[in-house]
UniProtKB/TrEMBL annotation:
Keyword Cytoplasm part of the UniProt annotation: yes
Signal sequence coordinates: none
Transmembrane segments: none
Alphabetic keyword roster: Cytoplasm
Record organism: Brachymonas denitrificans DSM 15123
InterPro entries: Rossmann-like_a/b/a_fold, Universal_stress_UspA, UspA
Protein name: Universal stress protein
GO cellular component, one term: cytoplasm
Major subcellular location class: cytoplasm
Subcellular location: Cytoplasm
Domain UspA: residue ranges: 1-144
Family according to the record: Belongs to the universal stress protein A family.
């Protein structure tokens, strides 16, 4: 059914739920999987406490974070005997990096977690998942925390 799954990750617990879902789908359908971490190389155009230190320190930290998140995905897939390609991309907006990568690799579904932000937090931070769903040229499966922290 799905030949190529794009799996955007950010190291969060909701991304971990998406990893589990994508792994199950890959096993069921024999799908190719590309795990993606989108780096924002332009943090000083944004606002927030995470950008209180210099550009070089930021880039080092975010690259380390990306490597760790993708390593965890690769290990999870390897433990199940499933191959996954990992890639990092730079994008001025995470949602745009996801959409562009999906188009570039020819994914027919994007499987991603959503943090479920609401109210003012959603207004201020936006919703990557909402923008991906709005702009994607393919199917998108959004994985949420359900009751008890399990994927719905």
């Amino acid at each position: 059914m799905f030949k190529h799954i794009l799996l955007p990750v950010d190291g969060s617990s909701t991304a971990s739920l998406a990893v589990t879902k994508a792994l199950s789908m890959a096993k069921a359908f024999g799908s190719k999987v590309t795990a993606l971490y989108v780096l924002d190389p332009y943090p000083f155009a944004s606002a927030g406490p995470d950008f209180a230190f210099g550009q070089a320190q930021y880039l080092s930290a975010v690259n380390t974070e990306a490597e760790q998140a993708l390593k965890e995905v690769a290990n999870a897939f390897a433990a199940e005997g499933v191959t996954v390609d990992t890639v990092t991309v730079d994008a001025y907006a995470v949602w745009k990096g996801i959409i562009d990568t999906s188009d570039e690799v020819g994914a027919d579904v994007i499987v991603m977690g959503s943090h479920g932000r609401r109210g003012v937090e959603k207004l201020m931070l936006g919703s990557v998942a909402q923008r991906v769903v709005s702009h994607a040229h393919n199917s998108v499966l959004i994985v949420h925390h359900g009751a008890g922290g399990k994927a719905e």
